[in-house]
Amino acid sequence: DIVMTQSPDSLTVSLGERATINCKSSQSVLYSSNNKNYLGWFQQKPGQPPKLLIYWASTRESGVPDRFSGSGSGTDFTLTINSLQAEDVAVYYCQQYYSPPLTFGGGTKVEIK
Amino acid sequence: QVQLQESGPGLVKPSQTLSLTCAVSGASIDSGSYYWAWNRQPAGKGLEWIGRIHTTGTTNYNPSLKSRVTISLDTSKNQFSLKLTSMTAADTAVYYCVREGTSGRWGQGTLVTVSS
C-alpha cells in the first residue's frame, strides 16, 4: 500500500494569511505515460462529507476558489490556501489514486488564530 | 448535478452482515468511465477506502477488508451496493458512497453502529 503522510497535524492561521499543508507519499504517484500525479486534496467541514478541491495534484475542481492551489510532483505535494477565510476552517486530506488500495493522509486541521 | 444518497440500517449486531445501497441521480452509473466507491470514517478519525467498482464491473477492494467485502452495481435501479460481513465494533463508522475521479462526488454519509 502507498502510505500518505501529512504535516502538520494542525495549524492555526490568522485571517488573510497563508496556510500550507504538506503531503508525502511512500512511493511516487507520478504516472510516466501521461505525466500526471495521481493525487487529490479534499476539504471536510464538521458534519459534512469531504469535498474534492484539487485533482491531478494541481487542477482545481470547478467552483473552488482560486485561493486554493496545489503543487508538487512525485512524492512531495503541497496544498496552499492564500488569504485564509473563516469558511476555510476544516480538516484537509490528501489522497493518492495511483494504485489501489486508494489511501488518504491522516488529515490536517486548519483553525483561525 | 450528480447526487448520491446512502441508505441502510443504522444499527447492526456483531457478526451480522451490513448491506448498504447508494442511489445515484443526475447521472447513469453505467455510462462514462467512472469508479463508484465506498469509504468510511470512524467518529473523530480519518478516512478509509473500502473498495470500488468500475462501470465495466471490475472491482478493487482494500486488502484489509477484502475477505469480507462485496461491491456490486444494479444498473436497472441506477444504484450500487456494499456488503460487509462479520461486522464488529471496529466497523462502527460513517459510511460514504463516492463517485471517484475528476468531478468526484460524495454522499452525505450514513452512520452505522455495531452493537448488540
Provide a descriptive summary of the structure in words.
The complex is a heterodimer of chains A (113) and B (116). With 113 residues, chain A is an all-beta fold. Chain A has strands spanning 4-7, 10-13, 19-25, 30-31, 36-37, 39-44, 51-55, 59-60, 68-73, 76-81, 90-96, 103-104, 108-112. In chain A, strands 2, 6, 7, 8, 11, 12 and 13 form a seven-stranded mixed beta sheet that branches. In chain A, strands 1-3-10-9 form a four-stranded antiparallel beta sheet, with no helix packed on it. In chain A, strand 4 and strand 5 form a beta hairpin. The mean pLDDT of chain A is 97. Chain B has 116 residues and is mostly beta strands. In chain B, strands 2, 4, 5, 6, 9, 10 and 11 form a seven-stranded mixed beta sheet that branches. The radius of gyration of chain B is 13 Å and the shape is globular. Chain B starts with a strand and ends with a strand. The model of chain B has no long low-confidence stretch (mean pLDDT 96). The chains are: A mainly beta (113), B mainly beta (116). The A-B interface holds A 1, 40, 42, 48-52, 55-56, 59, 61-62, 93, 95, 97, 100-107 and B 37, 46-49, 51-52, 60-64, 96, 100-104, 106-109.
Count of helical regions of chain A: 0
Our count of helices of chain B gives 0
Count every beta strand of chain B, where a strand is a DSSP E run of 2 or more residues: 11
| H and E string of chain A | EEEEEEEEEEEEE
Q: What are the main properties of this structure?
A:
heterodimer; A: 113 residues; mainly beta; 0% helix; 51% strand; B: 116 residues; 4-stranded antiparallel β-sheet
Question: What is the secondary structure topology, with strand pairs?
Answer:
The complex is a heterodimer of chains A (113) and B (116).
Chain A: E1 4-7, E2 10-13, E3 19-25, E4 30-31, E5 36-37, E6 39-44, E7 51-55, E8 59-60, E9 68-73, E10 76-81, E11 90-96, E12 103-104, E13 108-112
Chain B: E1 3-7, E2 11-12, E3 18-25, E4 35-41, E5 48-54, E6 59-61, E7 69-74, E8 79-84, E9 93-99, E10 105-106, E11 110-114
Parallel strand pairs in B: 2-11
Antiparallel strand pairs in B: 1-3, 3-8, 4-5, 4-9, 5-6, 7-8, 9-10, 9-11
